[in-house]
Amino acid sequence: LMEGRLWTESMFAQELVLKQRTEILDALCSSGSAEHLERVLDILLAQGELVWEDYLNVQVLPEVQQSGLTLSGCSLTVGQKEEAQNTPSQTLLARRPNFVNKLQGCIDGALEALVASGHFSSGDCKEVQLPVHTPSQQARRLLDHVRSKGESAATVLLRFIQQTQECESPLNQETLTPPKEALKYQKKLISSVSAHSFFLSTYGGTSHMSLDDIYTEGELELAQHCPNMQGPLGLEDIVGTTGTVNEDADTVLISGEAGSGKSTLLQRLHLLWAQRAAFHDFLFLFPFSCRKLNAEQRELSVQELLFQHCCWPDRQQEEIFQFIVDHPHLILFTFDGLDELKQSFSDEHRLCCPTQQAPVHILLFNLIQGSLMKGVWKVVTSRPEAVGPLLKKHLRKEVLLKGFSPSAVDCFVRKHHSDPTVAAKVLQSLQANTALLGLCHNPVLCWIVSRCHTELLGCGEGSLLTMTDVYLMILQNFLQHQSAPKSTVGLGWIQEHLKTVLHLGQLAFEGLGATCYIFSSTDLETCGVTEKDICMGFLIQTKDMLSTQSKHYEFLHVTIQCFFAALYIILSSDTQRSTIPKLFEMQGVSETCLCCSFFRACLTHDDPQGCVEAEEARAVEIPNLQITAMFVCGLLSQRHHHLWHHCCPSATIQKRVNQVSRCLSKGMQKHFQSIPQPVEGEKKSMHAMPGFIWLIKCIYEMQEGKIAKDAVSKLEVDHLKLTYCNIGPVECTALAFVLQHLRSPVGLELDNNSVGDVGVEQLLPCMHICNSLYLRNNNITDEGISRLITKAIQCDNFRKIALFNNKLTDACTQHFSLLLKTKQNFLALRLGNNNITAEGARQLAEGLKVNRSLQHLGLWGNRIGDAGAVALASALEHSKSLLWFSLVGNGVGNAGACALANIIKNSTSLEELWLTENCITKTGVEYLIQALEYNTHMKSIWLRNNELSLEEVEEIKKRDPRLIF
Ligand code: ADP
């Protein structure tokens, strides 16, 4: 019977394989390398499911994906497992998957042993080490060859594997002595990387600030929550094991908004490597900039890419490259700004041969996927929008770069100004203007603000509010400080430099249209950019453009390019009427075609080549368009109209203002129309769609209450869900600016963002329309709470707050206590997973004693212990409002249980008590059971994972079904 069943099962499996043949083939080949297929073959061979002759018939060539697979010769001899494998060849076969892994790092040694023992010729070695083979393929070819040479060769190999195992870690760099030439090349590479990373790159020619002097740690976070993670993520964790989600992949992505410091972080990584201060595991580091790779027109091989774009070996290029191919784990590639590459990521064209030439983007995509140079670590940076699911599949992990924390802002400003009094003044004015402090969360804005300290200090408090304000400040700073003193009396500063602004504006605008961030002298000439314009400092010369002799330029930062594009849109007489509406239609769009059509429609200097390039432009441009649109809003704000006098007819400006207002209002309507009708009995809820936060920020840039009011006048929801929207302090400022005009109160759900204390402060203006505020997992400390509660106490509508998983301690509980004392309509307080102890519980108890309204109290995952439980219980003993109370995971023992029993005895309202994961024993539970005898309204007491034996649990369950385990 058993046999029959096995037979049916295997038949069924075969049928399944046949049925899903296409999917299986796809899965085996879609990675672009033969690796998946070969790994499956290893397993089949090892398990005896595939006989050797059939294995030889299966064609696994490097070009497998192009030639197609010939699986026809493969007969799966189900049930024909080999007898006990006892010859050396059989051992090699049976443990093939394992040996393939082991041999990868020590092919050279194994070959040496086989040559020395006379089993292998140099021809054999060459065949094994063909450059088209990945290290794992080399290992397989080695095993195949050994098998063909007979048992004695197999014995030699087995002995070699055993020996290397005994000497431990053949992959360890310390045991590996690279050839002399490789070490010389390393020296040259180090000095080149060091030279390129020594000065902070964006300061370009403007100021020579060494990276060591100015570098300030930004906040790094894993994109996927990692439960074992301890402490903050450091630079070295990028290439460490922490947070790995896909062991097979070797690409790490660092994602962050424009200006969040991605390039600077890579630069830091390069410098630390070059100084031999960190990243010691890597013998070679090859840095690439996607911006520069855009200019590479030729087809290159990986070898040419490395040597021509990074560092040229003076001698023995072939040997050095072979060394690189043979030791992938000692190599690190970095690619900065994947979002700036003209082509979007695709895994259609596959390559696995490092000597084969291909267009650079194809090389890059194959490197990222690991079909080329498997095992080499690659660190790639990009803006988040440019990373689609296709790319995510190939990531080992994703690290988010969140920008500067408030203390990093402080540290940056102090480093930036050698004069401590200036630094103190700058910091003082930032403290006085928290909207501006919020903007400084983004390092590029922090740099601008700090750079323009004279203007900053000259400004009245609070006059710099928006991103546009900050960029106007740098515009003024550069225009006025780098040109001769005012020549024409009576002209506004923009008017005086209008030509420069328009030339640079056109260059920026057309550049964005063609995904172009590096400009040739011809590009500059076409837009009329003169030497004088260049001297203003917005353009810096691109270092290292290898392709040509002529000079190339780029904007100080991509956001500055967007700013100039926006200036051009509002000031140029060439701008078409449709430009602004088209710019705003882009919201939430991720299809390439629409994006290109924007530029096709708007570019006045269209040329056929530009068109072809625009066709290739992608969704990646949307972030740039969105930033540009935000600047357009900001520049058209009433506050800045005086700047455009004599630069552009006021009627034109007004027309553009009207256009923008209409677009914003239309954009918001679209969002509201998509809100589904609520299910009966549920609240009407809106979940932010892509583009919602951006629209809010655009409205904020306008700084006009009326526009904000109009925008939300038709929004009728009970609950606004903005979870995982990358909301930081700047977004909070904008949200509060708009939402304060809502007509009826809402629940505002901001869980899983980066609100922080600065963001909390920014939310205060809209607190009066919040009936509940959810700020779970947002990096908030006691300081933020102190400000929040001071305001919340005055807001009648405010009834619920959830602060699960923040950084709260006993220092915040006095504020909640005051809130509970003052607000007799407050309903829910959830403080789970913070760091509150018995002392904090005592303070809360002070408030709870007086409060008559609280229904939900959640303290899960704190450390209040017995003493805390006793204090809370005594405060809540006679509560007539509390319905739900959680002390899960708080180290509560029998004394706590005894005190809590009093609430059960006396409270007329409590329905649910959560005591899961504490240390209550049978004695403690007895108190609860006794108390329940007096209580008929209590529904459940949760007691799972306390200190009770199975028998005790069984017995207790019988005594009262309301005790739940
Ligand atoms: P991104 O690549 O994310 O657009 P950049 O790395 O170019 O951002 O940063 C823009 C500017 O912000 C830099 O030129 C520098 O002035 C400043 N900056 C960014 N990160 C840091 C940092 N960690 N320390 C000091 N300054 C920084």
Automatic annotation (TrEMBL):
Protein name: Nucleotide-binding oligomerization domain containing 2
Tree of life domain: Eukaryota
Gene Ontology MF terms: ATP binding
Domain NACHT as annotated: residue spans: 250-386
PANTHER family, A to Z: NACHT, LRR AND CARD DOMAINS-CONTAINING
Main location (coarse class): membrane
Record key words, sorted: ATP-binding, Cell membrane, Cytoplasm, Immunity, Innate immunity, Leucine-rich repeat, Lipoprotein, Membrane, Nucleotide-binding, Palmitate, Repeat, Ubl conjugation
GO cellular component: basolateral plasma membrane; cytoplasm
Boundaries of every CARD domain copy: 84-166
Keyword Repeat applies: yes
Lineage: Eukaryota, Metazoa, Chordata, Craniata, Vertebrata
Membrane topology according to the record: Lipid-anchor
One GO BP annotation of this record: innate immune response
Subcellular location: Basolateral cell membrane; Cell membrane; Cytoplasm
InterPro entries per UniProt: CARD (IPR001315), DEATH-like_dom_sf (IPR011029), Leu-rich_rpt (IPR001611), LRR_dom_sf (IPR032675), NACHT_NTPase (IPR007111), NLR (IPR051261), NLRP_HD2 (IPR041267), NOD1/2_WH (IPR041075)
Ubl conjugation recorded as keyword: yes
Family indicated by similarity: Belongs to the NOD1-NOD2 family.
SUPFAM superfamilies tied to this protein: DEATH domain (SSF47986), RNI-like (SSF52047)
Organism for this UniProt entry: Echeneis naucrates (Live sharksucker)
